[in-house]
Amino acid sequence: MRWAALCAALVLTAQAACARPIAALSPGARLALQGADGVVPCAVCHGARGQGRPHFAYPHLAGLGAPYVLDTLRAFADGRRLNGIMTPIARRLSAQAMRSVALYYAQFRPRPPHWPGSLSLSRLGRGRRYYQYGALSDHLIACARCHGRRGHGQGARFPWIAGQSRAYLIEQLRSFQAGARTGHALGLMRHAARPLSRHQIADIALYVRLLGARPPLALRPHAWVRSARPIVPRGFMPPPRAAIPATVFGRAARRGRAIFDDTPRYARAYVGNALSCRDCHLGEGRAPHAGPLWAAAALYPRVYRGRVTTLAQRIRDAFAHSEAGRAPPLASPVLTDLLAYIHWMSRGEVIGAPAPGRGYPSLAPLHGPPDSAQGAVLYHSRCAVCHGERGAGRRYNGRLVFPPVLGAASYGRTASLAQEPLLAAFLKATMPYGEAGTLSRREAYDLAAYLDAAPQGR
Ligand code: HEC
Ligand code: HEC
Ligand code: HEC
Ligand code: HEC
Questions:
Q1: Ligand 4 pocket, mutate which of 139, 157, 386 (most atoms under 8 A from CB)
Q2: 382: Cβ below 6 Å to ligand 4?
Q3: Is any ligand 4 atom within 6 A of the Cβ of residue 424?
Q4: Ligand 3: centre distance to CA 156 (Å)
Q5: How far is the CA of 203 from the centre of ligand 3 (A)?
Q6: pTM above the 0.90 mark?
Q7: Pairwise CA distance, residues 291 & 347, whole Å
Q8: What domains does the chain contain, in order, with CATH numbers?
Q9: Of 351, 383, 414, 442, which residue is most buried, by most CB within 10 angstroms?
């Protein structure tokens, strides 16, 4: 294509770049804006600044980051991800060309879309709830855990999705669900997308499209959040976290929830590591079969380690051992607030009745000893993506997003989780995060043996 003709074709997206002298363009910019032998310029579909073309469901590349774009181009080229348009393009690019175009697009950030004139507020509210908090009753993990609260992605693995077009989001979610897009070797997205219904996909796509867009003044603050219909639970479910009332008791429960979610921050005096209660009691302490606290509330006082123990004492124990810190005094606000949160989520539970879903489903012992060397191999292939090669967890923008599993920042030897059978049960029931249930019993024991004996220690 002639340069002048191309610039004319790109006027909407590439004006600034076309004004620049051609010689000044980097190789990546040249490929993006001018194309190469047999390769249409990327800008035709993805925009000169990587803004994409939402109308055609062409994704934005801005914000995705060079490592993700590079890996995705390789995936198109080697068949890990197939697409009628992108696969032939990627197959024509040299490794060097892929690298330079990935770097070119990495310098831009996506522009937030405009708020649409009309939309369904309850759909948006539901989308927000699924995205930010997931839905326990539907085994749906919060997208925010991996893509970030604002949808800006985290590190090289978890891409920026805020602002992508609805059509593109829906297409990708369906294709993960159907197994057509396999994506990351761990299949994280296939598992995250599997439980979604058609309606949930549409709700989430609307919300993610508008994440970061400015709602009109009349809609603030978050009028649409309140308009969402509640999600109807299957079986016993604690109330949704947003339902804590604005009473004196409710304020204590909210503080308790904050302590539960970020214990090192809100209960600093009593914590000696980097773990929060929620890291081992999943779904903010509400998920069945993952250490739910509503089930504990109806059970205590009970005999624990040979003594009649109250819930308050059990929590003090958790601080001393799981949190590698010291027990808060019985009258401390930290303890009171945590008890208020647990009590609030347990309303409707019958005291003394069996609570299906309590604890972590126990795991039958193995015949013969577990193999910690095999556990190490598994750890590096299935866990390190989130917990880090050395088990130190991962931080993004200074926030600990994936907790440490080894070393001094994790739980100590005296923690309940350090007991091998319990750790194996925990792993089988909850990990890898987002793909719970995919480890075999032997794999869970091998991993537990590795974590308990790893050179980084506890
Ligand atoms: C004719 C239009 C077109 C052209 C030209 C084009 N792309 Fe694409 N691109 C697409 C479409 C459509 C998709 C979505 C593919 C899918 O659904 O899997 C896509 C997806 C991508 C993705 C994945 C984005 C994500 O969020 O996962 C990357 C990266 C990408 N393209 C890079 C490029 C680069 C670099 C070029 C130039 C060398 C280029 N594309 C040229 C249409 C195009
Ligand atoms: C356990 C972590 C995890 C969770 C939870 C998760 N994702 Fe993802 N997501 C990923 C990873 C990793 C990728 C990169 C693609 C891959 O699998 O290779 C991805 C990719 C995507 C993509 C494709 C992005 C692109 O540019 O093509 C979309 C869309 C997406 N996720 C949406 C969601 C939504 C919506 C949810 C919530 C229902 C969600 N994700 C939950 C890890 C996660
Ligand atoms: C390192 C992981 C970990 C952390 C962090 C942790 N716990 Fe636990 N907690 C466990 C395990 C494992 C059990 C199950 C013990 C058992 O079944 O014997 C447990 C049990 C409990 C119980 C009793 C539940 C029952 O059903 O009997 C309570 C209450 C509790 N934890 C509260 C907390 C609180 C509050 C925090 C934060 C201050 C916390 N835990 C932090 C791992 C952890
Ligand atoms: C997609 C990311 C991801 C993967 C993969 C993953 N985890 Fe986790 N893991 C998490 C998150 C997130 C938590 C905290 C749960 C929460 O806060 O809801 C966690 C918690 C834990 C905990 C308890 C808290 C702690 O830090 O000690 C252990 C132990 C653990 N994971 C081990 C593993 C093992 C072993 C694997 C591999 C089989 C694995 N995880 C795979 C994300 C992941």
A1: 386
A2: yes
A3: no
A4: 32
A5: 34
A6: no
A7: 17
A8: 3-106 (1.10.760.10), 121-226 (1.10.760.10), 244-345 (1.10.760.10), 372-453 (1.10.760.10)
A9: 383
| Ligand 4 midpoint to CA 412 (Å) | 16
**Residue nearest atom 1 in ligand 2 by C-alpha distance:** 434
pLDDT over 70, % of the chain: 89
Cα–Cα distances in angstroms (integers) from residue 3 to residues 34, 92, 101, in the given order: 7, 21, 19
Pair of tokens at residue 258: 């904050």
Pick left, alpha or beta for residue 406 (phi over 0 → left; psi -120 to 50 → alpha; otherwise beta).
beta
User: Is the pLDDT reported for residue 3 higher than 50?
Assistant: no
Question: Tens digits of per-residue pLDDT, 276-312?
Answer: 999 999 988 988 888 999 988 888 999 988 999 999 9
* Residue whose entry in the numeric block shows the structure tokens 């590698």: 324
Q: How far apart are CA 299 and CA 296, in angstroms?
A: 5
Judge contact between 406 and 457, C-beta under 8 A: yes
pLDDT beyond 80 at 113: yes
Q: Which atom of ligand 1 is nearest to the CA of 57?
A: 12
152 vs 236: which has the higher pLDDT: 152
Name the residue with the closest Cα to ligand 2, atom 14. Answer: 158
